[in-house]
Amino acid sequence: MAPSAVEVETVQVPDIAALKLKAAALNSPYKELAASKFDSDAEAGLKGHKAAKYPHYLPTWDRTQTYPPLEPFEHVEHGKDADTSYPNLLPQGTVSVTHLTPSIGTEVRGIQLSTLSNAGKDELARFVAERKVVAFRDQDFADLSIQEALDFGGYFGRHHIHPTSGAPEGYPEIHLVHRGAGDNSVDKFFANRTSSVAWHSDVSYEQQPPGTTFLYILDKPETGGDTLFVDAAEAYNRLSPAFRERLHGLKATHSAHEQANYSLARGGIQRREPVINEHPIIRTHPATGEKAIYVNPQFTRDIVGLKKEESDALLKFLYDHLAYGADFQARVKWEEGTVVVWDNRVTQHSALVDWKNGQRRHLARIQPQAERPFETPFEG
Ligand SMILES: O=C(O)CCC(=O)C(=O)O
Ligand SMILES: [Fe+2]
Question: Where is the TauD/TfdA-like domain (predicted)?
């Protein structure tokens, strides 16, 4: 999988020219061929790389899975109900908690997410909203059945079904990130691009985009493939009061069309008709009350009511501010057994495609949807 101009996901950028040739030979549209998006021999361990550890999590793209538009639903924010002394999530004496930076990122060892009571899950939602991204080490999450993992994630909201990404057979609620063993397409990518960084908040085009999000590692390269996160609430706080005040009341459009087109152009799927939604540029978190910048270069298109040059300039400023703010970012290193939980409402993230030895990288994401973004008035 090479990083894309849109959200990094499992579309593996097959060699389009080769696919077209193959399709012409078979007299079928090349897009029908693109389902074989990894080398099954390599995934089985027959080509010099180790076998996929979780083959039941390998991506499939089911063209028969199409869905009607998402219906609005009432989101229950469990983070609001949490005991913020975290007695269930972070019991004293048994759990080690290391903050990666002052504003964003924490590493936790010594608690098994899969055993949390509902009170513990409420605490999890709140702790993640406060810390923005938390890496839980030594988890058994990947070894649960896929249904058990989904049941756990479903506590936090309605499962989002991604419009284009690969999923384990029969489980479209799981979004897979997979770069197959022996896949060296990254070389082609870097022939034309200087960096794989692509900041985004996941599927911000939805009317009710996801909140508490789970990403767990299945297979990883020896080194590389870390994930970067930025604290969009701290990014808001760093702005001058005058500038913050001006941003309040503005809305931006977020579009799913480009991601859908990208998928179709590469022979991928489209599970739902693409949507465009407007969201406030500054949104408020329902549990913490924090305000955060909510525009991202992957899905945001323009600021409503501004002229194109004005909108482009303001969005570029906000994207640069988030991207250059290394003093409110965290870099999460994956270890075997890590589950990373982030709050997609107050963070952005980027995959880093920096390993070039053809080692497999395979992760699964469970992403419950949350409330429709709302804003609360500017406070000086
Ligand atoms: O591969 C990664 O590190 C992150 C991919 C991503 O953007 C996601 O899972 O939402
Ligand atoms: Fe993402």
Answer: 97-366
